[in-house]
């Protein structure tokens, strides 16, 4: 498990709630750990996609710059 998942599990066990949870989860005393883990995994996927896009853009810029220099 990742660090975030460990932190979420500790918060769940201790009964702590983070400030970024929606109001529905704040109003109930139960938090579904599976939903929290699912959110963390989705955020990691989003982060990986963003890193790939940024890397592709940087590589494209370097390639274009290289082509311009060779002309």
Explain this structure.
The protein has one domain (3-70). It is rod-shaped, with a radius of gyration of 20 Å. Helix 1 (3-14) runs antiparallel to helix 3. With 71 residues, the chain is mainly α. The relative contact order is 0.09. Helix content is 77%, strand content 0%. The protein has helices at 3-14, 23-27, 33-70.
Provide the fold topology:
Layout: H1 3-14, H2 23-27, H3 33-70
Defining traits:
0% strand, single chain, 3 helices, 71 residues, mainly alpha
Mean residue pLDDT: 81
> Number of helical segments?
3
Q: Structural class, from secondary structure content?
A: mainly alpha
The overall strand count is 0
Question: Biggest sheet: strands, sense, closure?
Answer: none
Q: Strand portion, in percent? A: under 5%
Radius of gyration: 20 Å
Shape: rod-shaped
Q: How many structural domains?
A: 1
Helix and strand element order: HHH
Low-pLDDT segments, ≥5 res:
none
Termini Cα gap: 51 Å
Helix content: over 70%
């Amino acid at each position: 498990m990742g660090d975030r998942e460990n932190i979420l599990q500790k918060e769940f066990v201790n009964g702590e709630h983070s400030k970024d949870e929606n109001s529905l989860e704040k109003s109930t005393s139960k938090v579904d750990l599976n939903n929290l883990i699912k959110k963390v995994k989705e955020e990691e996927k989003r982060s990986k996609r963003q890193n790939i896009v940024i890397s592709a853009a940087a590589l494209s810029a370097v390639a274009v710059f290289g082509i311009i220099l060779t002309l």
